[in-house]
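Q: What residues go here?
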């Protein structure tokens, strides 16, 4: 996760500062398990390091997510806010 944060958002996060907060078993074209983490410490300002794969990288209020947000990510964030550590999507 630390490596992905650097590659995709330009953020430096110490792996010891990451906390697993949700696991999602999901299905679309294939079956996957996604792991979601939180942190309260990082270095740098978020920036879209993959503009060909992501149209925007911004801070949003929970009640004002963009309409074109990836659906399973939206659901995962909602489940984390409900203190649920596991969910399923697309079944």
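A:
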């Amino acid at each position: 996760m630390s490596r992905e944060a650097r590659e995709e958002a330009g953020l430096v996060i110490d792996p010891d500062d990451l906390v697993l907060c949700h696991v999602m078993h999901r299905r679309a074209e294939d079956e996957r398990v996604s792991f979601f983490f939180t942190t309260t410490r990082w270095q740098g300002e978020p920036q879209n390091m993959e503009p060909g794969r992501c149209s925007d990288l911004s801070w949003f209020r929970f009640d004002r997510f963009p309409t074109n947000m990836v659906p399973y990510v939206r659901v995962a964030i909602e489940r984390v806010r409900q203190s649920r550590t596991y969910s399923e999507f697309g079944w």
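A: Context that may help when evaluating the design: The CA atoms of residues 6 and 12 lie 6 Å apart. The chain has one domain: 2-89.
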